[in-house]
Amino acid sequence: MTVLEQPGSYRLSPPPAWRPRVDPAPLLPDAEPYRLLGTDADLEKAPGRDVLLRLHRELVRGRRYNEQATALTRQGRLAVYPSSTGQEACEVAAALALKEQDWLFPSYRDTLAAVARGLDPVEVLTLLRGDWHHGWDPKAARVAPLSTPLATQLPHAVGLAHAARIKGDDVVALALVGDGGTSEGDFHEALNFAAVWNAPVVFLVQNNGFAISVPLAKQTAAPSLAHKAVGYGMPGRLVDGNDAVAVHSVLGEAVERARQGGGPTLVEAVTYRMEAHTNADDSTRYRTDGEVDAWRDHDPVRLLERELRERGVLDDATAEDVAEGAEEMAAGIRERMNADPELRPMDLFAEVYAEKTAQLREQAAQLRAELDAEAEGNA
Amino acid sequence: MAQALNRAMRDAMAEDPDVHVMGEDVGTLGGVFRVTDGLTREFGEERCTDTPLAEAGILGTAVGMAMYGLRPVVEMQFDAFAYPSFEQLASHVAKMRNRTRGRLPMPITIRVPYGGGIGGVEHHSDSSEAYYMATPGLQVVTPATVADAYGLLRAAIASDDPVVFMEPKRLYWGKAEWDPEAPEQVPGVGEAVVRRSGTSATLITYGPSVPVCMEAAEAAREDGWDLEVVDLRSLVPFDEKTVVESVRRTGRAVVVHESQGFAGPGGEIAARVGERCFHYLEAPVLRVAGFDVPYPPPMLEKHHLPGVDRVLDAVARLQWESDWVEGGQ
Fold first, then answer.
1. Would you call B239 helix, strand, or coil by DSSP?
2. Chain A partners of B20 at a C-beta cutoff of 8 Å?
3. Are B98 and A352 an interchain contact pair (Cβ–Cβ within 8 Å)?
4. What is the pTM of this model?
């Protein structure tokens, strides 16, 4: 029997092993999602009365926005609309956790976060209306384009945050992704880069239970999505995604931590998508009415409104005022969306390259001639 | 050529603090081909960064950096290692300018050492340029000379559009004379060059096949052929003018490249020449390309790579004889 075949007889000390740089224990998320509504936290002290009322107003507007956009889809005014009804607390808290100079990186479902950040609601719908891929000026708004490929916007957020820090700017990037997106390779690479570079970036996973039809249990075997943070060497936070105050608080802490040079954080907000994935999806095939109803009792708008009324922060007059404001916004969207968009076919060739190639110039001339012939035919 | 590429990055970094080099092993090691040698020493780890080993992450973070105004130069260590980054490339790098109506240009240079002839094992010798050419929004360039390596890389880094910069690996260590202190200026992205003037046929080529074609042109003189050699330098944008003018002059054309022939770059080039030069042609436009096989193991690559003899065979077939077409060639 050789030395190696005798268990325990191998006495040479091994070379020093590579070890993680941090103690994993403080990185682990809480066992239960963090909540503030329904607890005896002093909300008027933190986050304060103004923030509570702002969260409420944006939640009500957000719900109305989701309803209006869904209606426009039924009328054929939008090609598609992935509703965030039920998830408004995450969307609104994400927008309000940022300072003006910070950047938001939304996925295709996060139109509402862009609206809550102050963007023109109709510009936000450009992609989904189908008149162009993207509406607003990303640099002016500091909101990246809605990303349709899953999790690919996360490395962009990391790169931008890294670049801002190199330039000495006080900028934090907040990137949104769904539970399905956490299975993508780009999710892993983004978190890894962020942690290695200590980039000022925050990742918010909106765990709404389903990636189209695939439930979380078939998406991951991890104890929670927030647990994934530990492997990258960043803190993971688990929060009730329907509790707007809790999401705002947790994101606020994470953003501030990033701003102070503390590095990235992964936040998992546990929420529920009340509508189907999009109007093209049939959610009755993969979930029951009972499940949806259970979440209806935990509705983010009602949770906040009830609590603010109980605490005397919200009165009838304010609530009415907020509801009227939301109606006005919806009416404005309806009016503008019912007008046919101004299509600019020649834009197909604009901005493919800084300068058109010879081939594109030829093709542009071809389309120009076709358009002219068409106009002549119509005249 | 490796030295010229190194010099190009060094000069660009010295002139513009927004130029950042990043990739796996580009720092302390100076790249596996030493193309980034000394950049970290000179400009610091922040400007020439060893990244985690993740091509999608390298290119994806470069997108965010470009959004914030930097000009990233990323290295994909070998041609086939770039494939994990394709989603970022196709879905974001190539489209961002267009989808945001010019508000977010992507001034990213993606350096891809490509092609065979260096005895690399599998995944180290692919000619992947056709994938990039098939993606609108990307520029695709490839130098064949040391002067072009310097000039084109400077132009690529200065370009406000994403440039896939294909570096022919087997030309890295050529013996050509080059004065790094006085780099020759070359035209920017998008201009082909006539490397050798001739009258009886045009060889249209680029990158690692340029020296092959130059050698073939010399050898063909014995058989009475006076061959013109056009080095495309830039696959996208494609310099149709230089190519068409040449073929109209000579009346015959062979497209030569290392990547596969089927659905390869030569198909596009031959089709364009056919459309533009049909009445000037004395013979069909021929292609000499790598076989339509996964890149072979190193001990067999000499049978795969189009060499001088294969080019000369094609040139011989340009002398129109009806029977070779009927023979199913």
1. coil
2. 166
3. yes
4. 0.94
